[in-house]
Amino acid sequence: MALKLLCITDCCDRPESELFIGLQKQGVEIDVMCNPSGRNFARLQQAGVPLIESSLKGRFDRSGMRRIRQQLRSKPYDLVHTFGNRALQNALLASFGIKVPFVAYRGIVANVSAFDPASWLTYLNPKVKKITCVANAIRDYFLQMPFSSLVLPTDKPVTIYKGHSLSWYREQPVDLTQFGIPQEAFVVVFTGRDRPRKGVRYLVEAANHLPPGLPIHFLLVGPMEDNSKLQQQIAASPYRKHFHFAGYRTDAPAIAAAANTLIMPSVRGEGLPRSVIEAMAYGTPAIVANAGGSPELIEDGKNGFIVPPADGGAIAAAILKLQSQPELQQQMGENARTRIERDFNTTRTVEQMLELYQSVCR
């Protein structure tokens, strides 16, 4: 008998969408509750995945809970898989009195604790049988929490990487001269949000460790132009004229494709950063800090570099290696594409997820 699965998400990304499509192709009777404004809603429709329009306004959305409860009562689901805190908390509350096991998705390191009541309404809830973690770093975080041995079975958090396909990444690289970058420059790109844990200041600090006068330029993609502290730090840099702001962009992967390397200098909290995966899929080697799940993508010295967190000097040294050795950059880029194709592909994700579902429903 086919597994009856309800997935609850918001504006799902491409890997999530392909997971749903792949599960359906494997014979799973899947229904997906998701936001119709999401970029991949039409993709799911075209693939014939049964969709229920849902847009949760917060972690306690009465109308959303009623809608979820109504769906849970519409058929005998074997399992519910939620993606995100809103979906998980609302679905657990909506399922009161309904006997159905849950699988929860977790994409970042931090903010779950046995001392936090909200955690008992989400990941530590007894109805949640498995937590799918996008990186080993997240799984380790759960298992190393204070009192984790008392509140969390060791087999509850499970690492399943988000799957990608090289066929998704075929856009033409963006012309970076539109940002004021010279044609022959060696371009270092950062893509992300303006948050302290992202460690952008250490990328700026790296410029202080570079020999003067090199044709190295830095492109910051994301809403960072209004960060006065960052602007002041750049203004004091010997490479201040080599920093460029792209602002928020929907074509960030194609920008990374045009760069020589991508930097992810996060100091904490990182799951499995999509920007690094996208860059690697385009053949752009990455330099990542040894924090969170980022190092799980990189084979150090083969398809990128892993540097200590909060270390501008180490970032500068890695940049110089790539800038001074074009053949190394090219080989690392080719190895990066192979790494994504081999170890982070969507077929493997679907297979692992299906095995996990079957283990819960035995």
Verbal overview:
This protein is an alpha/beta fold and 362 residues long. It folds into two domains: 4-163 and 345-361, Glycogen Phosphorylase B (Rossmann fold); 167-343, 3-Layer(aba) Sandwich (Rossmann fold), CATH 3.40.50. It has 14 helices and 13 strands. It has a seven-stranded parallel beta sheet, sandwiched between helices. The chain has a six-stranded parallel beta sheet with strand order 10-9-8-11-12-13, sandwiched between helices. Helix 5 (117-120) links the parallel strand 5 (102-106) and strand 6 (128-133). Helix 1 (14-25) packs across helix 14 (346-361) and helix 8 packs across helix 12. The longest helix is centred in the C-terminal third of the chain and has 18 residues, at 326-343. The relative contact order is 0.12.
Mind sketching the topology for me?
Blueprint: E1 4-8, H1 14-25, E2 29-34, H2 41-46, E3 51-53, H3 62-72, E4 79-83, H4 85-94, E5 102-106, H5 117-120, E6 128-133, H6 136-143, H7 148-151, E7 157-159, E8 186-191, H8 200-207, E9 216-221, H9 228-235, E10 243-247, H10 252-258, E11 261-264, H11 274-281, E12 286-289, E13 304-307, H12 312-324, H13 326-343, H14 346-361
Parallel strand pairs: 1-2, 1-4, 2-3, 4-5, 5-6, 6-7, 8-9, 8-11, 9-10, 11-12, 12-13
Helix pairs in contact: 1-14, 3-4, 8-12, 12-13
Q: Average pLDDT, to the nearest integer?
A: 95
Which fold name corresponds to the CATH topology of the largest domain?
Rossmann fold
> How would you write the strand order of the largest sheet?
3-2-1-4-5-6-7
- Gyration radius over CA: 22 Å
Outline the low-pLDDT stretches.
none
Q: Looking at this structure, what is the CATH superfamily of the largest domain?
A: Glycogen Phosphorylase B
